[in-house]
Design goal:
The structure is a single chain. It is globular, with a radius of gyration of 28 Å. The longest helix has 22 residues, at 215-236. The protein is α/β, with parallel strands linked by helices. Helix 2 (52-59) packs across helix 3. It contains 20 helices and 22 strands. Strand 4 and strand 5 (105-109) form a beta hairpin.
């Protein structure tokens, strides 16, 4: 057993923070108020025992409208919570603006916190402490330009506490609860990290040889290095974090001895181990929250309430993709591609069953491989030229996925310049072909096809991204990267300065997982309690944990990402 106490120094990197410097002359505001200006919406302090439903009933408004007005509050706000409610005394008047002179330029300030336009058409957000443009754009999947267009005053005042923002038009989706980062004063947190460094085993081997071929060594190291940057960032925020690192070695070789001699009673949470078989053992012995920091098919069998899965199960990805298809369905022809495995057959049947529950979907065809591959004629003849075609891949098989993509890229289409003589020649050649050769329909060149997948895993590594973009490939993902965001650029800068390399996927995951867990614990509440308070967004990851006190908590934070024709990616959900 190896116990390493990490003493990490704070980085002196530049802070990327937005500063909005504008002087607002209160005198003008007071004049506007004294002249009888009424507010359509006013603040209200929730009393003990009151719920949103109770308050809405008393006001004579719909509960859902009051929730939309306070999307970050929830249905049962705590006593003394300040919410926004309609002003019963309000009378519609022409909208006045307040003018403020600054640097010889006239700035028009519209009062965002008292929106006079109909609110039922918009998702609304009341600005709270800790909100940033980055967090809001990530949480609501909008751009900063969209926020500025709907809320013009942002360009002059920036985000102000209690400001009520219009986010985007309301869609048929659940109200989003965003987790608010709060830090209890003088917070001291103790974490443990269990990773298979196998330091003694690799002691005599050159580092280049270790990382050149050993995938596990790369994953282990990258998670730790990313977590180290998170520690630096958390300490800058005033959180005293102590991290104990344990080298668990090969599977089932050192863990028992670590658990036998280590007292975890003063540890707030454990990140790791990496082997899924070892996770339940740690949870049962340590008795503290154990965060599984990677994905494994075996994680579906976890049952301990102490275990927290930072990655969603495959089944949850499948459910998210099917939900997206159902939400956007407009009479498309649906094909489901499976393989010969029992898992794929089961998944294909489950997808079809859910789709057919939709009022407008009466047919969804499943296509399975013939002798190990998907025949092109099966796919082509199942397409419909007069409507859109949606192809759902319910397989992890690389060969089958490649077959499908290649078949859909090279459709048999009509040649618009072909004359009658050419057509007759083709017919003669066709008659000479063997009678058992499959025939394929000829499709219009503008036949619409879109492909959907669960994960963009290794099965797509050897498929040209240009082909995926041409088919509008849409897939579920546990990450979404905005390379232009100041937060990600700062992380890359810090990581490069410290490790002389840019962060990998697992390095960023290491940062996100540790940072999120510590920020939640820094609130002074238990992790399970913070899970009830909403979804958090970090550099690339989304953490939307299930809340059951007596079951394993699972992260359902899943993005839906789509390829654009220019090879860029768009987050569609």
């Amino acid at each position: 057993m190896t116990l390493v106490q990490n003493h990490l120094q704070l980085l002196n990197g530049n802070k990327f923070m937005r500063e909005f410097k504008i002087i607002i002359i209160l005198f003008f505001v007071m004049i506007a108020t004294s002249c009888g200006q009424q507010k359509k919406y006013i603040s209200y302090t929730v009393k003990k025992g009151e719920t949103i439903k109770v308050i809405a009933k008393r006001l004579g408004v719909k509960t859902k409208d009051l929730i939309r007005l306070n999307p970050d509050i929830g249905r049962k706000p705590a006593p003394e919570t300040v919410i926004i409610i309609p002003n019963k005394q309000y009378q519609q008047k022409p909208i006045n603006t307040t003018l403020v002179e600054k640097n010889e330029a006239t700035v028009v300030l519209d009062e965002v916190s008292t929106i006079d336009e109909p609110i039922n058409d918009f998702v609304l957000h009341k600005v709270a402490k800790g909100d940033t443009f980055y967090n809001l754009t990530r949480a609501y999947n909008v751009s900063e330009d969209q926020l500025n267009n709907l809320n013009p005053s942002l360009q002059t005042t920036g985000l102000q506490l209690q400001m009520l923002l219009k986010i985007k038009p309301v869609e048929d989706e659940d109200t989003l609860a965003i987790y608010r980062d709060t830090i209890q004063e003088n917070t001291i947190l103790k974490l443990a990290m269990m990773l298979p460094f196998r330091a003694i085993e690799y002691d005599t081997i050159d580092a280049k040889d270790i990382f050149k071929t050993n995938k596990l060594a790369n994953i282990t190291t990258d998670i730790y290095l990313g977590a180290s940057i998170a520690i630096d960032s958390l300490r800058k925020l005033g959180i005293d974090v102590e991290l104990s690192v344990f080298d668990t070695g090969r599977k089932d070789t050192k863990l028992d001895s670590i658990l036998a001699v280590t007292d975890f009673s003063n540890i707030d949470a454990i990140i790791g181990p990496l082997y899924s078989e070892e996770v339940p053992k740690v949870a049962n012995k340590a008795g503290v929250p154990v965060i599984f920091p990677v994905y494994s098919k075996n994680q579906a069998s976890f049952s301990s309430s102490k275990i927290i899965k930072s990655f969603a199960d495959r089944e949850e990805h499948q459910q998210a993709l099917v939900a997206h298809v159902l939400a956007n369905y407009t009479n498309e022809n649906i094909l489901i591609i499976g393989d010969s495995s029992a898992t794929s057959i089961s998944n294909s049947d489950a997808i079809k069953s859910v789709l057919l529950q939709h009022d407008s979907i009466t047919e969804a065809q499943i296509i399975y491989p013939d002798q190990g591959y998907i025949r092109k004629d099966y796919i082509i003849n199942a397409l419909k030229p007069d409507i859109g075609n949606w192809v759902l891949l319910a397989t992890d098989n690389r060969v089958i996925s490649s077959d499908v993509i290649n078949s859909l890229i090279s459709l048999p289409v009509e040649d618009p310049e072909e004359d009658e003589e050419d057509k007759e020649d083709k017919e003669d050649k066709k008659d000479k072909k063997e009678s058992d050769e499959p025939e394929m329909q000829i499709l219009p060149e503008d036949t619409v096809i879109k492909v959907f997948g669960i994960f963009k895993s290794s099965q797509f590594d050897k498929i040209d991204n240009i082909k995926l973009a041409k088919l509008g490939f849409t897939y579920t993902s546990d990450t979404f990267i905005d390379e232009n965001s100041p937060e990600i650029q700062l992380f890359h800068k810090q990581y490069l300065e410290k490790n002389h390399a840019y962060p990998s996927y697992y390095a960023t995951k290491g940062f996100d997982i540790l940072f999120d867990i510590v920020m939640r614990l820094a609130s002074g509440k238990t992790l399970k309690d913070t899970f009830k308070e909403g979804t958090s967004y970090r550099l690339e990851s989304k953490f939307e944990y299930t809340r059951s006190l007596f079951k394993t908590s699972s992260n359902k934070g899943i993005y839906i990402v789509e390829y654009n024709p220019n090879l860029t990616l768009t987050r569609v959900k």
